[in-house]
Structure formats: structure tokens, C-alpha cells
Amino acid sequence: MMKKKWWHGKTAYQIYPKSFYDSNGDGIGDIPGIIEKLDYLQELGIEILWISPVYVSPCADQGYDIADYYGIDPMFGTMEDMDRLLVEAKKRGIAILMDLVVNHCSDEHEWFQKALEDPDGEYGKYFYIEEMKDGKGPTNWRSYFGGEVWEPIPGTNKCYLHVFHKKQPDLNWENPKVRKEICKMVNWWLDKGLAGFRIDAIINIKKPEKFECYEADRDDGLCSMDEVLIHAKGVGEFLGELRDKAFAPHDALTIGEVFNVSDEEMKDFIGENGYFSSMFDFRETIEGKSVLGWYDCSIPTPDDYKKCCFESQAYSEGLGYLSNIIENHDEPRGVSHYLPKEAQNETGKKLLAAMYFMLKGLPFIYQGQELGMENNKNWSLDEIDDCSTMGEYQRCLDIGYSEADALAAVAHYSRDNARTPFQWDDSEHAGFTKGCPWLVVNGNYKDINAKDQTSRGDSVFAFYKELIGLRKNPKYAETIIYGKTEPVLVDESNIMAYFRRGEGQNLFVIGNFDHERRIVTVEELAVSWKEPVVLINNYEGARIENGTITLEPLQALVVAEN
Ligand code: GLC
Ligand code: CA
Questions:
Q1: What is the CATH superfamily name and number for domain 484-560?
Q2: 466-517 tens-digit pLDDT
Q3: H or E element that contains 87
Q4: How far lies 94's CA from each of 53, 195, 461, in Å?
Q5: Is the distance from the beta carbon of residue 330 to the nearest atom of ligand 1 less than 6 Å?
Q6: Is 101 in the pocket of ligand 1 (CB under 6 A)?
Q7: Which atom of ligand 1 is nearest to the CA of 65?
Q8: Which residue, judged by its Cα, is nearest atom 11 of ligand 1?
């Protein structure tokens, strides 16, 4: 039996501060804006908040390039605002997680500035600085955002490593001084009263022992970081140190952004005494991705989706507690990605909500997901801000796409889809700002906004509230939190169905992704369920008779055995 933790039964919410709520009219969301909206989050039932970076940053990668780990960027507010947020959140029973971004810092961080001044000096050793040969870096690795990972240092024959943007130099974790600095910083924030961290891009902190070239996987002669990471062994030593010297003494809640780790290694990450409390399940988001780039990706079908969910549930069972998402600030909007086109309506959105929310694990809601916010349908190139999208766009041009085709090819995956301002109401700029928003507002804000959704009992918002409420209901909580997930009807296309098996209690979850009515039979319901009680339903009525369930198009049900 898994050791119970205070956070297992909660619901978490991710805020992307720049786009959440602008309190002072400069077009950029900020910490006072978050404080103003805490009541809204409390009303929804949120008890854990992950806040994407608000540290000092030149924003080459929207705050994921940190120039001062101990400071709040003026565009987001002040340290007093941050302290006030901690106090106000606590009053409402909400724990705060910040983003821990320590694979890299900003090139404007003091450490890197000093490294540039004297690459052979003390701070040069905080980074990966290498000699160039024939104007080239030592390896053929491709950065996540496109292009080589090596950037020349002007006025020298040297270059530095950046696996993300060139304004995000990688910190050298082999250097004990770097680890000590990071540990000190993590402790400083935890001492302040943070509950913990979401941990960014953390698998990248370990590099292969030798800097070698690997087989190219595109015609640019470079190889992807996925390949590079296969050759990097021993990340656990660094992570164990961080756990022992910072996380564990504070009993911090830590959620890892963990890619590129095999199922077998999971236990080390989130098992008993793992490096982290939990990690995101990215199996669904990875499905359909291509090493060639976004233009070559395919969108998962509902059957792909359920397969991924069930695989993750199966391997994590008895091993650790995953964190479940349908989207975040790096992914398309879940409802635009996992739902077939004709299912992208309120009923379909509730269906997807119920399917992922009832899985075992800690559910995260990304801001706007609770309203059913969608991808932006009409991107023009000059509205795109995200560096990753621009890299993928360039890639399309490189292989001969026209500008229009290139934009069309990257629009669905653009990280800006999730980053458009939160839609608060139907007034100008969706009520996000009184000024000019830093990123275009989705054109559908008059139809999809919080003001409307919170006033209607049949809204997507109301449905999420019900799901969150059910998770806290003492009658079912134990099963929802700890019950084993057991898939059924796995070969029924477009039907996703599973039991949650608790101690002496069973729940049954079923959804129909089809645009037609479906009738399915689950023997167990007929044989041993006396009187099924419908707990969640995105329709008015439900038809369950002798184990035969009639599901309307896009209907979702959560049923208890009585
Ligand atoms: C993570 C973040 C992403 C960022 C990257 C580099 O994947 O979620 O937004 O660009 O790390 O920090
Ligand atoms: Ca602002």
C-alpha cells in the first residue's frame, strides 16, 4: 500500500502568469492579478497552484530563462507581492508551487556574464564551454528549439552549450559549486513557505560523459536531444542530492517534468523515497510526435488517447503517483487535440474532462481548461511569439514549404495556443487587461469566458467543479485517490471505460467519443451491481439496465456501486 500524502486527494491548477490576469493595465498578467483571482480558484475547488516562472527574466523563453533566482521580475510585481500571494493563498487553503528551472539560466544571469568575461575562470566552469574546431562546436546535437546547441563566444575560439534557446546556457551540474548554489536557492524558497516546485526540463541536467557526435536524424546533419539523452547516464546522483539536501528536509511537494526515462526507471523517480513526489504523465502528449518536426506529427485518435492513459496507469500502479494533464503551456489545448473535430463542443469537453480526471493520480488543470478554452484558429505569423514555434516554422521553410503552408503546419502545435490571455468575460480583450494584451486574445472569447461559465449550471466550469467536488467527497475519495484502475471494453473503438477498484468499493467510468449512440454491456454491472448510482453525467439522463449501458454521442458517466 502506498504511503498516504497530504496532496494525493487535492486538485492542482497551473497558472501561466503572463496570461492570467493583468492588474495594472500594462498588458501583462502579474502576481497581484493572481491574488485578485484566488477566490475564483477557491470557488473551483483548487488546493494546489503551480505558478510558471515569475523570476527576473529577459523572457527569451517566457521566464524559463532566469537572470536572478532570488528576484521577481518587475513585470510580474515585487517580492512583497509574492509574499502576499503566499499568505493569501494559505488563507484559502491553497498551497503554492513555483517553477524550478535549473537545467539552464539566462545568458543575462550574473554567472554567465562573468563566464563570458573570463571563460577559463571560476564562472566559466559553471557552464559547458568548449573549444571550437574549424568554427564548429564539438558535437552535432540539435537544440530543442532548432539549430545547433553550441553558440560561439564572441572574441574567442570558444563556444557554450545550450540545449534550449541560445539565451539559455546550460548549467554544469558536474561542478559541485553549481549544485551547492542551486541547493541553497531551493532551500531559500522553501524556507519562505512554498509547498514545493514543478521541476523544469530536469532530465537534461546530465550530459553524456563524452561529447561525441551521434547519427544524424535529419538532413541538417544534427541529432535530436532525445538521442543525446540516451547516452547520458547517472542523472539520479544529482537528483538524489537535491532530494536529500533540499526537498526531503522540507517535505516538499515536487512534480518533475520528466521525459526520456524508461518505465523501469520510474521507481527511482517517484517510488518510495524517489527523487520527486510525482511526475507528469506525458505519454498522451508524446503520442503522434515525430523526430522530423511538428509538420510531420499526427494527432492522436480517441483510441490512441485511451491506450496511452491505460499504459501509464498500468505501469505506475503500485509504483508511484503520477500527475495527469490534458494540456499545459507547452502543448495544444487538450480539447483541440484529443477530441475529434465534431466533438469539440461543451459535451465533448466534459467527456474528456471526466476521462482524465477520474484516472488515478493528481489531476492538474491548466488555466482556461476549466472553461474549455481552445486553440486559436487564426494565427498570423506576426502574432506568434513563441521561440519554439518560430524554430519549427523555419524548419518548414528549410524543407521547401511556402510561408502559408509553413504557418499552417505549425499552427496546431504552437505553444502560443495555450498562452493566449485567459478569457474572463466578454468585454474588450476578454477582460484580461485594460491595456493592450502582450499576446493576441482568442477570437472566441465572447462565447467562451469565465463570466458566462460561472453563471451557468451546465457549463464546462460547473462540470469541473463537480469532478473536483466528487474527488473530495468522503464517501468516494478513497477509491478515487487510491483505487486501482482496471480498463474494460478495451477493444471497443471510441469507447473509454474503466473501473476504479477501492477497498470494498468500485467506481465505473465510461465515455463515448463517437458521434453516434453506442450500446455496450459490462457483465459485472449486471451480475454484482445491485443499483448503480450515477455520480457524474454530462447528459440529463443515463440508461443502465442489467449491465447494458446506452451512451448518447459524447456521453460520459461516473457510476458507483450501491
Ligand atoms: C520546459 C518548459 C518549457 C521551456 C523549457 C525550457 O519544457 O515547460 O516551457 O521552454 O522547459 O526551460
Ligand atoms: Ca501587469
A1: Golgi alpha-mannosidase II (2.60.40.1180)
A2: 999 999 999 999 999 999 999 999 999 999 999 999 999 999 999 999 999 9
A3: helix 79-91
A4: 18, 10, 19
A5: yes
A6: yes
A7: 12
A8: 201
